[in-house]
Write a structure and sequence with these properties.
By secondary structure, chain A is mainly alpha-helical. Helices cover 55% and strands 2% of the residues of chain A. The chains are: A mainly alpha, B mainly alpha. Chains A and B meet through helix 8, helix 9, strand 1, strand 2 and helix 11 of A and helix 5, helix 10, helix 11, helix 15 and helix 16 of B.
Chain lengths: 263, 529
């Protein structure tokens, strides 16, 4: 203790303590903030890549190849980017349940951390579209419903239907309903073009316009059923079905009753 | 005489002195109508037409039939600030701001669908019971005219709001007009006042929809009903019912009450649908722009079979002398419907030509007793239903996890193969039902009571049916096939022999029947028992 108290008076003690304190605070801040931030340290990032690679080797490589180079039945994933993996795995489309014409949306197999690991691994292979951050996805603030509706009707409705209920494509492929899809996943679908969907690059539809589309979809999803039950929002087919069952059924029933009473 | 009777008498006398109505009323208020639920099907059409007139008039108070461009500033936020036609904006205004407007729009649209359903089921009843036979051929043709005009009128109404769906429909109508060889492009230019979409079609369609066609409807419906009145209603066969009488209830008070009550029930059902089920939610479709299209764009059901025919048509085109003829649109869009409606309108004449039956008929046929006619009807119905199903092929494909291609090939093959199969099956069913009728008359009703005979044999007790029922089952006539001469008395082949041969063939097919139970057969069996 005597020695320490002597050193305390040393003229270098102040600067050394200052450096020590700065280093401690800096490290603590960096470790603490790394938990909730996308910017990981190099070490943490490479750990995530490793984890992702392990998951990939176990769950994906049998079709996509040991180095994600693709194969007979699955495309190469080099350069598809984190957004693509986050969409395909995050919506449960990958891994596919069976080799049908189109991967369908289902309960995701991997949890969000694992999805992130897989996405980071695939993104590490070659640059590609990144997962949009929450800051980017502030559609409530940055989007316009009316403009989004126009853009949706021009670019999306021909496959996804006027009210985003989905529709049929050729050979059993289909455009899925957009009801209940997370904004992040809608955004990722637009920038990566999954399945039969074309890519809507930022030049075709700007990021702000993408947010407007998302805002319109969310507004349509939240819209109450105006004018009675919406009949699936698929157009006149269900209306025709209702009039040929309930409508004429009620009327013929009454006609039979009227003719019966007179006997 | 009470005071009330005296006042009523004075009023009636006052009116009669000035109009001479009493004599007419006395005759017509006691006019008798036969009673059967299927005779009320036509009334569904009449009543929904009245509902259409009333609700349509309400809609015209706010609808602005103009393609003038406006900026939407109404209450529906997802369309706020968009450019659209005044027609679309005013339909939105009716839906969201006019009190009761959305309900009225929905009642109008549901009534239109019920009107068309009513026409079709009424037509089926008239067809399958042979009510179109002499002297009612003209009324049949008027009915077919009403059906055709109803399809057009409904389509025009669907096109008026100028939303994305209605514009898409108009675009297809334009394509069908253009598919007419040589004159198509000119007629399209004439109809749309230039290139599509232009600014003319909404005002033009509006005039036709609210003035011209309703006027023609009123005239045709009046003639249709006056002919029913004049020719008297047909009736099903039964004891005491002949070709020369009508058995039923008088117009006043029984039919007044029934018909009047039924009007309110039709109105009630339509209003119920309008209140609980959304129809044509135009705010979701958005304003029409030729550059936009929605998946699952469909016409209303009465056009659905036409759309289905177009959807299944293979891509056929010929190029000749600098012209393109789009058979893929021309055949399903114009030629096939033309053949179908012409055949429908001419059917009474075709049947009477083929059977040689030129007599008047006021008693209806039971469908089973005319197997050929019933089978032709089911055949035509099968054709239309296959086409209708293909009209909704995309919705059916996504709902039942099928592919559009499967649906298309099913309907392409099915529309050729299924109608003949339906014909054969229906004819066999009719003959089997005739056989069942014969057994019922001869052997009576199966009671389900089993009795064991002293010798150990089990038999089921058959109960004889009532004389009325036996009459009803056997009163129809079974016409022998025509045997038109193919050669003259000298044994020389006469002119028109080929035609006669064809008529003989058709007549033989028409006359195929299980011979009905005769009185002698019944007596014999009764004596035997």
């Amino acid at each position: 203790m005597k020695r320490l108290s002597r050193l305390r008076r040393h003229r270098a003690a102040g600067p050394i303590l200052l450096i020590f304190a700065l280093f401690t605070i800096g490290t603590t801040f960096q470790v603490a903030s790394a938990v909730n931030s996308d910017t990981t340290t190099v070490a943490a990032r490479s750990a995530t890549i490793d984890e992702g690679k392990q998951l990939f080797l176990k769950g994906c490589s049998s079709c996509h190849g040991l180095n994600a180079e693709g194969g007979q039945i699955a495309p190469s994933l080099i350069g598809v980017g984190a957004a693509d993996v986050d969409f395909q795995v995050g919506t449960g489309r990958m891994p596919m349940a069976d080799m049908s014409v189109q991967a369908m949306r289902k309960k995701p197999v991997y949890n969000p951390e694992q999805v992130n690991a897989l996405a980071t691994y695939v993104a590490s292979l070659a640059p590609g579209p990144a997962v949009p951050t929450d800051a980017v996805l502030n559609y409530e603030r940055d989007g316009s419903v009316a403009q989004g509706g126009e853009l949706f009707r021009t670019n999306c409705a021909m496959c996804h239907n006027f009210a985003a209920q989905g529709g049929a494509l050729t050979q059993g492929k289909y455009a899925p309903t957009l009801m209940g899809v997370e904004p992040k996943q809608i955004y990722e679908a637009m920038i990566t073009g999954p399945q039969s969907m074309p890519v809507f690059s930022d030049k075709t539809i700007t990021p702000a316009e993408k947010l407007s589309i998302i805002k319109w979809i969310k507004s349509t999803e939240a819209e109450p059923q105006l004018g009675g039950t919406a009949l699936g929002r698929v157009g006149p087919v269900t209306e025709g079905l209702l009039v040929w069952t309930l409508g004429i059924g009620l009327l013929i029933g009454v006609a039979v009753w009227l003719a019966m009473k007179a006997r | 005489m009470t005071a009330r009777e005296r006042i009523a008498g004075n009023v009636a006398g006052y009116v009669d002195d000035r109009t001479g109505a009493a004599k007419w009323m006395k005759k017509n208020l006691t006019k008798v109508f036969p009673d059967h639920w299927s005779f009320l099907l036509g009334e569904i059409c009449l009543y929904s037409f009245i509902i259409l007139l009333l609700s349509g008039t309400f809609l015209t108070f706010w609808f602005d039939p103009s393609q003038r461009e406006v900026i939407y500033d109404g209450g529906y936020q997802p369309l706020s600030g968009l450019k659209m036609s005044a027609a679309y904006a005013s339909t939105l205004h009716i839906s969201f701001e006019v009190r009761g407007g959305l309900l009225m729009r929905q009642i109008h649209h549901w009534a239109a669908l019920i009107f068309m359903v009513g026409i079709v089921v009424h037509l089926l009843r008239v067809y399958f019971t042979g009510a179109f036979r002499k002297p009612r051929e003209f009324n049949w043709i008027i009915g077919v005219g009403l059906l055709t005009l109803g399809i057009v009128e409904g389509f025009l109404g669907y096109s008026l709001p100028d939303d994305l769906l209605s514009g898409t429909g108009i675009r297809i109508a334009e394509a069908i007009i253009q598919a007419l060889p040589l004159v198509g492009s000119y007629i399209a230019f004439f109809a749309f006042g230039g290139t599509f979409p232009g600014e003319a079609f909404i005002p033009r369609i509006y005039t036709v929809h609210v003035l011209l066609l309703p006027g023609i409807f009123l005239a045709l419906i009046t003639v249709h009903l006056m002919l029913v009145w004049y020719q008297k209603h047909t009736q099903f066969p039964g004891p005491g019912r002949t070709e020369k009488n009508v058995v039923g209830y008088p117009l006043m008070p029984v039919y007044m009450a029934k018909a009047g009550g039924f009007f309110f029930i039709v109105f009630g059902v339509t209003a119920f649908l309008g209140a609980v089920a959304s129809i044509n939610p135009i705010w979701l479709y958005g304003p029409y722009t030729p550059g936009q299209i929605s998946a699952g764009s469909q016409p209303d059901w009465y056009m659905g079979w036409l759309d289905g025919l177009v959807r299944m048509s293979p891509p056929l085109e010929t190029h000749a002398f600098g012209h393109t003829i789009s058979w893929n649109i021309l055949i399903p869009g114009l030629i096939l419907p033309g053949i179908m409606f012409t055949g429908l309108a001419l059917y009474p004449f075709i049947e009477s030509w083929a059977t040689g039956d030129k007599r008047e008929h006021h008693l209806l046929d039971r469908p089973r007793n005319t197997p050929n006619r019933t089978a032709i009807g089911v055949m035509a119905l099968t054709f239309t239903v296959v086409a209708l199903l293909n009209g909704g092929n995309d919705i059916i494909a996504t709902t039942f996890h099928l592919t559009i291609n499967q649906m298309m090939w099913f309907s392409r093959i099915g529309i050729v193969v299924l109608p003949p199969i339906a014909f054969v099956i229906t004819k066999r069913l009719c003959l089997s039902l005739q056989r069942a009728d014969r057994d019922l008359v001869l052997h009576g009703r199966e009671t389900g009571r089993l009795v064991r005979m002293p010798n150990g044999e089990f038999t089921e007790i058959h109960e004889p049916i009532s004389a009325e029922k036996a009459w009803t089952l056997t009163s129809h006539e079974q016409i022998a096939p025509l045997e038109l001469p193919l050669a003259d008395s000298a044994g020389v082949r006469r002119p028109g022999a080929l035609k006669n041969k064809l008529r003989n063939r058709i007549s033989r097919a028409t006359a195929v029947a299980v011979s009905k139970a005769t009185e002698t057969e019944r007596r014999e069996l009764e004596g035997h028992h």
